[in-house]
């Protein structure tokens, strides 16, 4: 059985790590390279960097930051934000990223997923999906840092993304983002029921119990969190011990 992964997320804006609630009210929480090294030393399994304003402001993710992170950490890390072409992905992979996440650009041009998967392999292509529950009970996919409703149904989109070659889904519940109220189990299970690639659960982690719960009640293979790790509320090593005690396969 695959070991479950603890994945700190570093949202980057203007070269700094930031954190907000429901995608707004951002506060500065540190330098991305220093943060990455600290998380690596604390025992995380992977890292995710998302340049949360790259698409909105139409600028590229900082290749220099990726290069500096790759010099400091020796675990897989994913970079996303402002990836519009396979050349953009190539730059990130050459700079040292293991995987690259596509979001807004893939929705605008789904063939980007196919092109990147064919050039670099599906294992490098992460479909990052931000979704919010609508009044009718379905989930819609949002883009541009959660600013714009695409009208696309979440379930339809994850199926299409995987069929085009995405090797992993990073699924963020916008309703849960930053609330520390637990992961959106219903949304995760709905998505997992239609795809057969690993899913990283994102949005809502407030405690070790929430991380244990998402692994016990969904088939997510990774749990992504930001606030609880950034502010030292939860230690990765303690979370992993609690997971192991709960019978969850984890790398200690």
TrEMBL record:
Q: Which reaction does it catalyse?
A: 5-[(5-phospho-1-deoxy-D-ribulos-1-ylimino)methylamino]-1-(5-phospho-beta-D-ribosyl)imidazole-4-carboxamide + L-glutamine = D-erythro-1-(imidazol-4-yl)glycerol 3-phosphate + 5-amino-1-(5-phospho-beta-D-ribosyl)imidazole-4-carboxamide + L-glutamate + H(+)
Q: What is its EC number?
A: 4.3.2.10
User: Which UniProt key words apply to this protein?
Assistant: Amino-acid biosynthesis, Cytoplasm, Histidine biosynthesis, Lyase
- Please list the GO biological process terms of this entry: L-histidine biosynthetic process
Molecular-function GO terms, alphabetical: imidazoleglycerol-phosphate synthase activity; lyase activity
Lineage: superkingdom: Bacteria
Q: In which pathway does it act?
A: Amino-acid biosynthesis; L-histidine biosynthesis; L-histidine from 5-phospho-alpha-D-ribose 1-diphosphate: step 5/9
**Family per record:** Belongs to the HisA/HisF family.
**Which protein, by its recorded name, is this?**
Imidazole glycerol phosphate synthase subunit HisF
Q: Which organism is it from?
A: Streptococcus criceti HS-6
């Amino acid at each position: 059985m695959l070991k479950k992964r603890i994945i700190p997320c570093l949202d980057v804006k203007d070269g700094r790590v930031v954190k907000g609630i429901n995608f707004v009210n951002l506060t500065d929480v540190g330098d991305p390279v220093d943060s990455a090294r600290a998380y690596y030393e604390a025992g995380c399994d992977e890292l995710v960097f998302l340049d949360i304003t790259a698409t909105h402001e139409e600028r590229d993710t900082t290749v220099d930051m990726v290069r500096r992170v790759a010099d400091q950490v020796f675990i897989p890390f994913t970079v996303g934000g402002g990836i519009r072409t396979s050349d953009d992905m190539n730059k990130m992979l050459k700079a040292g990223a293991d995987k690259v996440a596509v979001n807004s650009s893939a929705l605008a041009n789904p063939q980007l997923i196919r092109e990147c998967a064919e050039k670099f392999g599906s294992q490098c292509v992460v479909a990052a999906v931000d979704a919010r529950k609508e009044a009718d009970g379905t989930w819609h996919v949002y883009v541009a840092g959660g600013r714009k409703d695409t009208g696309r149904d979440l379930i339809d989109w994850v199926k299409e993304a995987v069929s085009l070659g995405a090797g992993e889904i990073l699924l963020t519940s916008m309703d849960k983002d930053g609330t520390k109220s637990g992961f959106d189990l219903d949304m995760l299970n709905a998505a997992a029921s239609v795809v057969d690639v690993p899913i990283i659960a994102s949005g809502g982690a407030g405690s070790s119990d929430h991380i244990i719960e998402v692994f016990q009640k969904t088939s997510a293979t990774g749990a992504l969190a930001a606030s609880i790790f950034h502010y030292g509320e939860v230690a990765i090593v303690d979370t992993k011990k609690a997971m192991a005690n709960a019978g969850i396969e984890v790398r200690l």
